[in-house]
Amino acid sequence: MQNIPLIAALEGTQHKVSTDWFAIMAMLKTREMSDDDIHNVYNELCAGLRVTTRGVTLSKLSADELNHQIIKQSENKDILI
Questions:
Q1: For residue range 3-13, what is the model confidence (pLDDT) as tens digits?
Q2: CA-CA distance, 45 to 32, in Å (whole number)?
């Protein structure tokens, strides 16, 4: 499994955060999810599906969303070229 950028939302809230697969995988293991189920979640995310499990909804961060985040983060910083 490779690390992929993700968007995570807690069930019952509108709050979303960007995270990555390795952080989510560690969280799922602490919530006693089996390795087979973790692989299934990973495969579904890589296929572009939205997955809800263990109180969190996950989706893969698209390239457009990732570029927008990078631009947004760099707007507040001085960039020297």
A1: 999 999 988 88
A2: 19
